[in-house]
Amino acid sequence: MSETDVKASEAVLSLDELLAAGTAGDGKRHYHIGSDWMQGRTAYGGISAAAALHSAMVEHPGDAPLRTAQISFIGPVGGECDVTTRMLRQSKSSRFVGADLVSESGYGTNAVFSFMKPRESHVDLEQILPPEIREPDQLECVPEHPARPSFTRKFEMRPVSGRGFGHGKDEALIVTWVKWIDQPACDPHIALLALADALPPAAMTAFHQFGPISSSTWIQHFLTDHPVTTDGWWLLVTRSHHVRRGFSAQDMYIFDADRRLVSMGGQGVALYI
């Protein structure tokens, strides 16, 4: 089966359906990540991170909102997956929860989630401005193509560069409006984390030839207690300032439809070209 095909015998699940189908037992939560969530030989990073976060929030609930997700993509993920979570530390204002995802291929994803209550501070500073771009209804969607990874069909994407993300450029930058095809009803932090990894690595826009790539580490900070947007659209900006010797370090920003910064982070990406 090519990576763009979905097995006829396998159900195509939305984010909500995949999480709702998860079961608990033996101190773990079990999920099935099907071929419709794959990219090559592993699952889309956003869905494995979302399964880990969902497990952490169900098994270790609290009233502090998610502030930071730290993810390590250690091995391939797909099919039957078990997530084990543990409380690392809990205080009056915060809690740290660890999660380990193991699938049919072995150990796949490690995550640490920090949940923190807001507190009053005399420091109030924001210096990251949104790019000046057109509205999503003025841009074209990424077209259907046999090479598209299966998971990308969960999203509508409208790059500012036109119908594609481009390559052979002098800078490693992708700016794209993204929304879910099936809008999730789950916790908005889970939904946004699952969407935050939707873009290709920024370094791909500087490629002159293509080859394997793989995100290895990912950190995402959430700057609002309840991330919501208008009409489902999020503006994703991914930029790499340093690509050398097979490694790209990229920054990632998410703005809501009103251009307010709601999340920021970064990834380390391995390049095999």
UniProtKB/TrEMBL annotation:
InterPro entries xrefs: ACOT8-like_C, Acyl-CoA_hotdog, HotDog_dom_sf, TesB_ACOT8-like_N
Residue intervals of the Acyl-CoA thioesterase-like N-terminal HotDog domain: 35-114
Superkingdom per UniProt: Bacteria
Annotated ranges, domain Acyl-CoA thioesterase-like C-terminal: 136-267
Entry protein name: Thioesterase family protein
Lineage: Bacteria, Pseudomonadati, Pseudomonadota, Alphaproteobacteria, Sphingomonadales
